[in-house]
């Protein structure tokens, strides 16, 4: 029914394979929407069972697809690039361990990552990250370039740290908002093209020979 679809369609709707990241056969199941709210009150056993049910349906569908592709191939057809899927040749065994996160009940999360709701825009992320006096804000919700990600949270944290440094070292009377506008996430992608990291303490404006012994160039003395 429509009601059942609405309340269950976000249940185990996606799996992340973390084997390359952690070096072990680990899957993360995602739950969203009304299904996520219902999952908060479910037992671990119920949620693990639900995840295994979905995985076995995927495996069963892959096996059926492989069988159909093999039949087509025997009749002179093209088996297709996905016919020999890893899913089609392996049984889905019970997990040896599991961890269930209930973000809605976590007092430091109260839900999950941010998203752009109807009527909202990417500029709202800028407002959520804008400082209030000496109070700085960071997190994935303050990074419109990379929201919903750990990377976005890290970038926003680095930016806040840069803001804190400028807050402590800025010139007298310099508005802090101007510092916020100047320090964009693009700066954190790498060193600026006009960044001068060399030392000019002993620069007296004299002629210096370049490294290959060629033409001499005049150094500009910094003021």
UniProtKB/TrEMBL annotation:
InterPro entries: Amino_oxidase (IPR002937), FAD/NAD-bd_sf (IPR036188), Flavin_monoamine_oxidase (IPR050281). Residues 193-213 have a biased composition (Acidic residues). Residues 4-164 form the Amine oxidase domain. Residues 66-91, 187-223 are annotated as: Disordered. It holds the Pfam family Amino_oxidase. One of its GO terms (molecular function) is oxidoreductase activity. Belongs to the flavin monoamine oxidase family. PANTHER family: FLAVIN MONOAMINE OXIDASE (PTHR10742), LYSINE-SPECIFIC HISTONE DEMETHYLASE 2 (PTHR10742:SF410). This is Amine oxidase domain-containing protein. It comes from Micromonas pusilla (Picoplanktonic green alga).
């Amino acid at each position: 029914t429509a009601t059942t679809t609405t309340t269950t369609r976000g249940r185990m709707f996606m799996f992340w394979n973390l084997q390359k990241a952690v070096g072990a056969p680990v899957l993360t199941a995602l739950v969203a929407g009304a299904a996520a709210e219902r999952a908060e009150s479910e037992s671990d056993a119920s949620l693990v069972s639900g995840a295994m049910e979905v995985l076995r349906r995927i495996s069963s569908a892959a096996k059926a697809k492989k069988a159909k592709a093999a039949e087509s191939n025997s009749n002179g057809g093209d088996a297709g690039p996905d016919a020999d899927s890893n899913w089609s040749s392996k049984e889905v065994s019970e997990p040896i361990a599991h961890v269930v996160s209930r973000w809605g009940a976590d007092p430091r999360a109260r839900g999950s990552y941010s998203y752009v709701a109807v009527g909202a825009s990417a500029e709202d992320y800028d407002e959520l990250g804008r400082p209030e006096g000496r109070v700085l804000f960071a997190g994935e919700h303050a990074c419109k370039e990379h929201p919903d990600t750990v990377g976005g949270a890290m970038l926003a944290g680095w930016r806040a740290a840069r803001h804190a440094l400028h807050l402590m070292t800025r010139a007298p009377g310099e508005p802090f908002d101007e510092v916020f506008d100047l320090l964009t996430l693009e700066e954190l992608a790498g060193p600026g093209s006009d960044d001068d990291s060399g030392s000019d303490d002993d620069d007296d404006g004299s002629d210096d020979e370049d490294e290959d012994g060629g033409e001499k160039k005049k150094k500009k003395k910094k003021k």
